[in-house]
Predict the structure.
Amino acid sequence: MAPNQLRSTSVISIFAAATAIPQYVGAVPMDASVSQKAKLEVMRTTADATEFALEVVKATQQVPSELFTTQFVIVGDHTDVAARRSLPVQSGRVAPRDIMGATADATEFALQVVKAAQQDPSELRKTQFVIAGDHTDVTGRRLLPAQSARATTPREEVIGEIRGWINLGKNWDGEGADVPIPSSLKDSEYFIDLLSVGYHFPEPMLLGNGRAGLYWNEGDLYADLEFLGDGRVTYFIEHKGQGKHKGVVHFRRGEMPPVFAALLRI
Amino acid sequence: MLFISDAAKCRLCSQLSSAFRGLLWFAGRWCCAWINQKTNPEDYVGRVRDINSCAPACACEKHRMSRFSPGVVAGSERLSRFIFHPMHLDRRGNVKSNFFGYVTNNGCSVQRESLAANAEMSMFVSEFMNKNPKAVWSGIVEAICENVRIVQADDDLPQGTCVYDTAYEHNSSHAEICASRTLQEDGDANELRHDLWELFGAGHLGLPESYRDGAVWRNLSADLRDRRISK
């Protein structure tokens, strides 16, 4: 079926309202088995949109033809409920990913899957979409129940722990700690995303100044990273018997600073 | 942060600091007590920075900072730090370096082992846990004061940390470890945390049940002893 035909049977739309909290309006096809729960549904949060996207994707994986009756449109840029992250419109082909540490990532991926599959239905059959374990959304206010039985990965554990800190208030440790700094927590998550599977995942740590850090004490490696929240990371790394290194580097999402690749042997 | 009216006193103290060890010891004592009292409120931001600004180079180690203190902290004293929050423990139950993070901003609280009787320690633990319903006493780490004082976060510094006697009315053995200068954000703070972590047992902690042969633990109420870590 051609994409044009798909559009002509468009029944699901998601629109971003120009409000602080975006509203998502979705409608399911009249004859669809994707979701029986609503013919016209208002989704107020990213989590709702995620859930709906998951239903769509799950149904279409079971019955690929389901997608043919569905058009999934994203208009404009969407921010999540905490307005802390934007989900830009994605286009192009789907890049298969095995693990999504964040619900926001899952949303983004679901959207990519659906969009790509609309353009090329065979794309869907190349894609594995797995949500495992219980994920909290970015604000930690809602749980998405497990969709399949898979053990939580070390990466998910670390990211989940960091996410939980956003709910901590001042003096969370009883010693006068500052409120966690969201930008610092985010940077530490992005860093975790760059660690390859099989690598010794660090211990996340929250400092009294509200900044996130990562800590390794494995074998001959000791490392202490602190995310300043402005795109910089300070570090102290020691390989016993091989000297120690410290400094500060700039860190951007998706790019592992070469100094860490070398010193942490990632 | 010090108010403008306090800044003049701070400058005076800073100028007097070179004489703190000499004949003007009384001026030093006045300054140190004033600095401690001024920067001690729970919501004060930048305590370590302002102590270093008013009394650089650990000048207040030579003077009583609190009227509740029996005296300055001697080099031979054993210092203990109590672990109350699961955030400070790793998956194996060892202490992480963030446990010493306060050394660069608010001061890192420790207890002077030679001063506090078991009853005072029990009271300190009980008060902390009663004030913080989620606190769980997981154990303690210890180090000798003179070893703490020779920690260097920067090779150019003769002394990277200071140990002050910052006693409270109901906790006369309370002391604090503070960085000896305001550190630049270039990894010095990370190194200082590491050095203290290593000095205080490299992550290994003493269990409450064995600390002082369990005397402090036994003095706690049953509900405090029964608290468990929930991450």
Summary: DSSP finds eight helices and five strands in chain B. The longest helix of chain B spans residues 25-39. The mean pLDDT of chain B is 86.
